[in-house]
């Protein structure tokens, strides 16, 4: 009898042990989803809302969870957000840096904890981030310069109203523009920079340089938001400049293009950018390598670079590039010119 009891107890112990092992095995298969934190500069500019929505949708479709932080133009808020993500033990942090040389200490802290850090659209200088995903900013500037070369004559003067000096893309865009301006024999009358990309800075510049603007035949604007402010200021000062260009293909800029007050915008298909960034981020979070041949210097280190090419958009090709791609619908673009709607 005692022998039978001993065998019964032993059998029950083995069953319990087996159950525990099965439970442990089941738990090991229930891997937690990839955790991604994304820190934007601001959502005031239309395009960043598109980036956010596409990135989140793509990452979620790949099984990741995404937390979004909006810094509202504050470097300190971006620093706080990185520290918050470190405490949350995120797998990856994606950053649109407000200042290209800020956040270095926080990025090192994150990487020390094994968190992958991705520079999105703007490169963190000296940060040695694990990846940079952006459009070719030098090509953006070149396309702007070509727009002037196609419409103006050698010797014509242009004014550059650039974005924030703390944005690394601005320097690359300026390089591309200057190369094109030299190629076409254009004279750069002056260069100004809008702190924090504030459109009001562009308006103030025009108001304070009316006589200079009378000599200009073109204005290169760092983005469409600045272009809108420049055009408004020109109208208020009863000035007319034939060629004004910007970038981002914002809806109001596309409307101005069909109305012929803005000549060109540089279209950067942000859906493609955000999708590629989300896919690459999930891969990095899972420990996979990114097969990317391009690299870019962040001033100290070579960083893997997923580089996309932008497109120039004028009235001639706006239907094929913007409407056919679904970026904006024709009813919105031709809102003020319904008779011209295709």
Description of the structure:
The protein is α/β, with parallel strands linked by helices and 342 residues long. The chain has 2 domains: 135 residues, 3-Layer(aba) Sandwich (Rossmann fold), CATH 3.40.50; 161 residues, Rossmann fold, CATH 3.40.50. Strands 2-1-3-4-5-12-11 form a 7-stranded mixed β-sheet, sandwiched between helices. The chain has a 6-stranded mixed β-sheet with strand order 7-6-8-9-10-13, with helices on both faces. Strand 11 and strand 12 form a beta hairpin. It is globular and about 60 Å long. The termini are far apart. About 7% of the residues have low confidence.
Structural descriptors:
342 residues; alpha/beta; Rossmann fold; 7-stranded mixed β-sheet; 6-stranded mixed β-sheet; 13 helices; Sugar ABC transporter substrate-binding protein; signal; Peripla_BP_I; carbohydrate binding; Bact_Solute-Bind_Prot2
Broad structural category: alpha/beta
Low-confidence runs: 6-10, 12-30
CATH class of the largest domain: Alpha Beta
Strand order of the largest sheet: 2-1-3-4-5-12-11
Record field, number of beta strands: 13
What is the terminal-to-terminal distance? 95 Å
Largest sheet: 7 strands, mixed
- Helix count equals 13
**Would you identify the CATH architecture of the largest domain?**
3-Layer(aba) Sandwich
Report the CATH superfamily of the largest domain: Response regulator
Helix content: 40-55%
Rg on CA atoms, Å:
26 Å
SSE succession: HEHEHEHEEHEHEHHEHEHEHEEEHH
Mean pLDDT: 91
How much of the residues is beta strand, in percent? 15-25%
When the domains are counted, the total is: 2
Q: Identify the overall geometry.
A: globular
Q: What name does CATH use for the topology of the largest domain? A: Rossmann fold
Signal peptide: 1-22
Main location: other
Domain Periplasmic binding protein: 36-289
Organism: Suipraeoptans intestinalis
């Amino acid at each position: 009898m005692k022998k039978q009891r001993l065998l019964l107890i032993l059998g029950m112990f083995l069953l319990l042990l087996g159950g525990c092992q099965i439970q442990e095995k089941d738990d090991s298969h229930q891997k937690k989803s990839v955790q991604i934190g994304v820190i934007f500069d601001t959502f005031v500019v239309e395009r960043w809302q598109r980036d956010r929505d596409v990135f989140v949708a793509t990452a979620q479709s790949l099984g990741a969870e995404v937390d979004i932080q909006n810094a509202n133009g504050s470097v300190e808020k971006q620093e706080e957000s990185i520290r918050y993500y470190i405490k949350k033990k995120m797998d990856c942090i994606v950053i649109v840096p407000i200042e290209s040389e800020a956040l270095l200490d926080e990025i090192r802290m994150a990487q020390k904890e094994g968190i992958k850090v991705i520079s999105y659209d703007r490169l963190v200088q000296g940060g040695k981030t694990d990846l940079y995903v952006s459009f070719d900013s030098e090509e953006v500037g070149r396309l702007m310069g070509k727009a002037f070369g196609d419409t103006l004559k050698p010797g014509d003067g242009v004014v550059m109203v650039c974005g924030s000096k703390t944005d690394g893309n601005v320097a690359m865009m300026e390089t591309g523009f200057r190369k094109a301006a030299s190629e076409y024999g254009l004279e750069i009358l002056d260069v100004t920079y809008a702190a924090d990309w504030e459109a009001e800075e562009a308006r103030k510049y025009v108001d304070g340089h009316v006589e200079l603007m009378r000599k200009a035949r073109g204005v290169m604007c760092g983005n469409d938001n600045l272009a809108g402010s420049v055009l408004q200021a020109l109208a208020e000062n009863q000035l007319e400049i034939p060629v004004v260009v910007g970038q981002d293909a914002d809806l109001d800029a596309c409307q101005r293009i069909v109305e012929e007050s803005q000549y060109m915008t540089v279209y950067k298909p942000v859906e493609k950018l955000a999708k590629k960034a989300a896919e690459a981020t999930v891969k990095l979070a899972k420990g996979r390598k990114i097969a990317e041949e391009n690299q870019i210097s962040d001033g100290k280190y070579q960083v893997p670079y997923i580089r996309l090419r932008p497109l120039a958009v004028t009235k001639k090709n706006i239907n094929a590039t913007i409407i056919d791609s679904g970026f904006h619908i024709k009813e919105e673009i031709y809102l003020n010119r319904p008779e011209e709607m295709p």
